[in-house]
């Protein structure tokens, strides 16, 4: 156990609430493999209670509800949340690092971005008051037509583990600014800072039920939220496979969904590029947050004439990346999120090798770290377009490389994903 990690319950209707079935999930620090605490693990029973609380906050209180309050009223809370995130930045960042294995200074920057996001949406909430109705001009003079923006209702926000607080805030802040009430379901692999966000909401006096934080497994919380008849919309960020499940479940009650899914982005380097600059961005694009980014530039396409020189630069950069305990100053590459993810990434590398690819740099556990789910920054060449390393999202510090000779060929390869 880590004294820094608070023991929390579910946050429903403005209060901490033990899950109905009293289940909990261990929290593992992926950089040490230690169990550092545990999380409340909700089930469908808790989802029902949270949805009721959110509906109550949306519809009740005799017109004083969140939905019909002014944007300025809602903005006041969003700003207070932003301020408290900044006040608690240092602790929150440490918790994020313990929970995810990401370097501490990356976590600090995530906390700052989370606060900025609340401030940004506070402004947009206020702007709603200035422009309640936007006239639309149509030919028929006998009709008066305007656009009126209204909150959709109760929204379920289902988020991944790579930027636990930031991904959640990108959904919570706009939902609350618009006047929706919400149930946030963070990833079971990294929920600690989302429960701390709940605590911040409690401290700033956010009205009861406006934001509920319900932690637990995808199958036990995400699935019942997605199919719930009283949830009006789902906003989901995560893998494409889960996105399909969410969309299918939501379709049963004709619920709109927003999906932000996985990726396999290319980065293209042409002969006339500034190679030092391009090398820096290639390394950053693929290895930041240990490559666990949906927009990670995990496929490098480099012009044949500069490939050898460019790869040398990438190897030099990779050798200089500090891989260490993510709490250590100057750490640039922490661990990946979990044992499962660690094994999945190593399996991708082994399979690529078996299919004839060359591991130009890295490819395994760093020699100096025998504990924690660490993987070296890895560069793979001799990659074929039918290989899984080329086609599938690895979500780890793995760059695969192909060369091209013409722009057309580069574009064709860039678009060559499933
Ligand atoms: P995941 O799909 O495994 O899980 C995402 C969330 O869905 C978690 O909270 C999980 O508990 C929940 N979930 C699981 N099963 C569910 C179900 N049946 N119904 C409803 N919810 C369910 O994704 P992950 O492993 O947490 O995150 C990594 C993925 O997220 C990668 O594919 C990455 O590309 C993607 N991602 C995308 C973006 C983006 O903006 N497009 C940003 C970050 C991450």
UniProtKB/TrEMBL annotation:
GO molecular function: 3-aminopropanal dehydrogenase (NAD+) activity; aminobutyraldehyde dehydrogenase (NAD+) activity
Active site per the UniProt annotation: 260
Enzyme class name: oxidoreductase
PROSITE patterns, A to Z: ALDEHYDE_DEHYDR_CYS (PS00070), ALDEHYDE_DEHYDR_GLU (PS00687)
Gene3D superfamilies membership: Aldehyde Dehydrogenase, Chain A, domain 1 (3.40.605.10), Aldehyde Dehydrogenase, Chain A, domain 2 (3.40.309.10)
Domain spans labelled Aldehyde dehydrogenase: 16-418
Any one cellular-component term (Gene Ontology): cytoplasm
GO biological process per UniProt: cellular detoxification of aldehyde
Record EC number: 1.2.1.19
Domain of life: Eukaryota
Keyword match NAD: yes
Keywords: NAD, Oxidoreductase, Sodium
Catalytic activity: 3-aminopropanal + NAD(+) + H2O = beta-alanine + NADH + 2 H(+); 4-aminobutanal + NAD(+) + H2O = 4-aminobutanoate + NADH + 2 H(+)
Pathway the protein takes part in: Amine and polyamine biosynthesis; betaine biosynthesis via choline pathway; betaine from betaine aldehyde: step 1/1
Family: Belongs to the aldehyde dehydrogenase family.
Main function: Dehydrogenase that catalyzes the oxidation of several aminoaldehydes. Metabolizes and detoxifies aldehyde products of polyamine degradation to non-toxic amino acids. Catalyzes the oxidation of 4-aminobutanal and 3-aminopropanal to 4-aminobutanoate and beta-alanine, respectively.
Protein's UniProt name: aminobutyraldehyde dehydrogenase
Higher taxonomy: Eukaryota, Viridiplantae, Streptophyta, Embryophyta, Tracheophyta
């Amino acid at each position: 156990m880590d004294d820094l990690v608070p023991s929390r319950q579910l946050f429903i209707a403005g209060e901490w609430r033990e899950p109905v079935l009293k289940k909990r999930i261990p929290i593992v620090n992926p950089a040490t493999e230690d169990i550092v605490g545990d999380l409340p693990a909700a089930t469908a029973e808790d989802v029902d209670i949270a949805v009721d609380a959110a509906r109550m906050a949306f519809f009740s209180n005799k017109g004083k509800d969140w939905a019909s309050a002014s944007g300025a009223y809602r903005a006041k809370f969003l700003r207070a949340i932003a301020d408290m995130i900044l006040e608690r930045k240092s602790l929150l960042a440490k918790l994020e690092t313990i929970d995810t294995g990401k370097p501490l200074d990356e976590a600090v920057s995530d906390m700052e971005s989370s606060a900025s996001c609340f401030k940004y949406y506070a402004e947009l909430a206020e702007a709603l008051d200035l422009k309640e109705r936007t006239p639309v001009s149509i030919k028929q003079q006998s009709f008066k037509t305007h656009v009126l923006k209204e909150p959709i209702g109760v929204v379920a926000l289902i988020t991944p583990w790579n930027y636990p607080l930031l991904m959640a805030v990108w959904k919570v802040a706009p939902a609350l600014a618009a006047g929706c009430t919400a149930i946030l379901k963070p990833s079971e692999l990294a929920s600690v800072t989302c429960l701390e966000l709940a605590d911040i909401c409690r401290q700033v006096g956010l009205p009861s039920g406006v934001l509920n934080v319900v932690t637990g497994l995808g199958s036990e919380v995400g699935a019942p939220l997605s199919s719930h008849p009283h949830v009006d919309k789902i906003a989901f960020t995560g893998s494409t496979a889960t996105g399909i499940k969410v969309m299918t479940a939501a379709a049963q009650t004709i619920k709109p969904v927003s999906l932000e899914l996985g990726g396999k982005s290319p980065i293209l380097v042409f002969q006339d590029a500034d190679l030092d600059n391009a090398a820096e961005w290639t390394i950053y694009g693929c290895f930041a947050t240990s490559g666990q980014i949906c927009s990670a530039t995990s496929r490098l396409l480099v012009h044949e004439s500069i490939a050898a020189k460019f790869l040398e630069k990438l190897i030099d950069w990779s050798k200089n990346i500090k891989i260490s305990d993510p709490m250590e100053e100057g750490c640039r590459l922490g661990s990946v999120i979990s044992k499962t993810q660690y094994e999945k990434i190593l399996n991708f590398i082994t399979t690529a090798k078996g299919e004839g690819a060359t591991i130009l740099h890295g490819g395994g556990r760093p020699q100096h770290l025998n504990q924690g789910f660490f993987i070296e920054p890895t560069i793979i060449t001799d990659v074929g377009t039918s290989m899984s390393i080329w086609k599938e999202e690895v979500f780890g510090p793995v760059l695969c490389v192909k060369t091209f000779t013409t722009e057309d060929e580069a574009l064709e390869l860039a678009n060559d994903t499933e």
